[in-house]
Amino acid sequence: xxxxxxxxxHALTCESLALLLDNKIPAIRVxxxxxxxxxxxxxxxxxxxxxxxxNVAERIGYIGLAQYQYRWNKTREEFLADVPQxxxxxxxxxxxxxxxxxxxxxxxxxxxxxxxxxxxxxxxxHYFAGIIRSTSERIDLHVDWAPVNAxxxxxxxxxxxxxxxxxxxxxxxxxxxxxxxxxxxxxxQPGEIPQSYGLPRSLTEGVPSFTYQATVGDLVIFNTRxxxxxAPGNASPSGSRVSIGSFAGRKxxxxxxxxx
Length: 260
Ligand SMILES: O=C(O)CCC(=O)C(=O)O
Ligand SMILES: [Fe+2]
What we know:
Blueprint: E1 9-10, H1 14-21, E2 27-30, H2 36-47, E3 52-53, E4 61-63, H3 76-97, H4 101-111, E5 117-119, E6 121-122, E7 125-126, E8 131-135, E9 139-142, H5 146-149, E10 161-169, E11 173-174, E12 177-180, E13 209-212, E14 219-223, E15 228-230, E16 233-234, E17 241-250, E18 256-259
Parallel strand pairs: 1-2, 5-18
Antiparallel strand pairs: 2-14, 3-4, 4-8, 6-7, 8-17, 9-15, 10-14, 10-17, 11-16, 12-13, 12-15, 17-18
Helix pairs in contact: 2-3
């Protein structure tokens, strides 16, 4: 059982990123990742973009795609075929906003990692990285762990997974994220991909937790193999919690691959 060595947010360094991938610290924050002007431009561009909705009870808007939407009913081929459209949809937002948060994150990671950092690939074909989300609803308790969620994909061959999110707009209240230090080791049935969303509270009982605020302009990174959830909140009439994020997994050769 890996335990956090402290309960603090850390600055981004090569050392802190390795500690986070090994689940030894709860989170990394890059304060002031984007300026206030960039945040308002990004948020406005998101709201004007091609927003879709997940098929979960809560109304969570998104632009782009998530690999885990394909895990049960769709093939890897269908996933890869949908990547260009998703890329087009987020690039329209980046263009309207005047900046590309995914490129900025990749530059930051490259400056703080000793091995290659790139978008994940399946042979020569790229995954999609950088899903935009807009909601004031809760995001239920879940884990994101590709070795279990994405068998048969190249991203399954990782030994650590973190997720980054940049927050372009925050709620008036609520909207904080809680991460529970209880890395996921589900009991697996052969050939079955288990449910990883709406997980039981037994996974969080008596478990150390860490809560972060989705502060505008900041980038926050945490280990997504831990169960985590986002609290609902109150938005102003046209307000929302607007974020963009992806996962980063560490391959056995030490390189980092990004996907959403
Ligand atoms: O929006 C957040 O704070 C976390 C979202 C999430 O579940 C993730 O990045 O894996
Ligand atoms: Fe997540």
